[in-house]
Amino acid sequence: MTDLLTVSGLHAGYAGGTVLDGLDLTVPAGSVVALLGRNGAGKTTFVHTVMGMLRPYSGSVRLAGRELAGAPAHAVARSGVAIVPQGRRVFAPLTVEENLRIAAPRRDGPWTVERVYELMPRLAERRANRGDQLSGGEQQMLAIGRALLRGPRLLLLDEPSDGLAPAVVDQVAEVLERLRDDGISAVLVEQDLHLAFRLADEVVVMSKGRIVHRGPTAEFRSDRRRAHALLGVA
Ligand SMILES: Nc1ncnc2c1ncn2[C@@H]1O[C@H](COP(=O)(O)OP(=O)(O)OP(=O)(O)O)[C@@H](O)[C@H]1O
């Protein structure tokens, strides 16, 4: 499989110091890679750096061969990367429909507002509701819909399960499963291992700004000792 995303030697951080310390990662086209790691490992920093929201100190971020490192977020978005941010960030005073319409849907992209509603009928039912009248799960679906409308080649999902009850995580998982089965390429940052295992083809573990493990999901799942050693979970 050809790699859609190729990140190499990525260094990035904040005024306080370096967080990404020479990170290398590839995402094959049509696959979902789960990015796991303890709190503070640098997962969100990675997602923000790929998206162009944080400028790297050095290193390369290539999407289908095209260099994106150092490009601003709007240029990265135009190149085909979309983010579903941690905390969802839907616009509270706007309705579901307005939130989707201002996502600036790509006219030539495969996704339309109607297609988003078909994927997530809950959003269609709530189309006239304001963002702040939605449940956490509905807000998450709205954030996913907004990202899809940009017609991304690569989707960056930053902890979609964050703050959701298990039954609601299950509903979001069903949506993401359908996208995966349709062949979407994605990096899924997750603390919820069940969700990561359910969706990802491969598991990547990050520690102190580097990748310290990579392997097929089934293999990682069956090796509890390694999961414990890398993530501190049972
Ligand atoms: N805006 C910021 N300014 C300064 N330091 C930051 C900023 N955002 C994150 N950091 C620091 O960078 C490090 C990595 O944080 P990051 O949020 O990328 O980790 P994470 O793996 O996503 O963690 P979590 O699972 O808790 O979300 C942490 O030490 C954090 O305190």
UniProtKB/TrEMBL annotation:
SUPFAM superfamilies reported in the protein's UniProt record: P-loop containing nucleoside triphosphate hydrolases
Signal peptide: none
CDD domains, sorted: ABC_TM1139_LivF_branched
GO biological process, one term: L-amino acid transport
Pfam family, one: ABC_tran
Keywords attached to this entry: Amino-acid transport, ATP-binding, Nucleotide-binding, Transport
Any one Gene Ontology molecular-function term assigned to this protein's record: branched-chain amino acid transmembrane transporter activity
Residue ranges of every copy of the ABC transporter domain listed in the record: 5-233
PANTHER family per the UniProt record, alphabetical: ABC TRANSPORTER ATP-BINDING PROTEIN (PTHR43820:SF2), HIGH-AFFINITY BRANCHED-CHAIN AMINO ACID TRANSPORT ATP-BINDING PROTEIN LIVF (PTHR43820)
UniProt record similarity statement: Belongs to the ABC transporter superfamily.
Name by which UniProt lists this protein: Branched-chain amino acid transport system ATP-binding protein
Organism per entry: Thermomonospora cellulosilytica
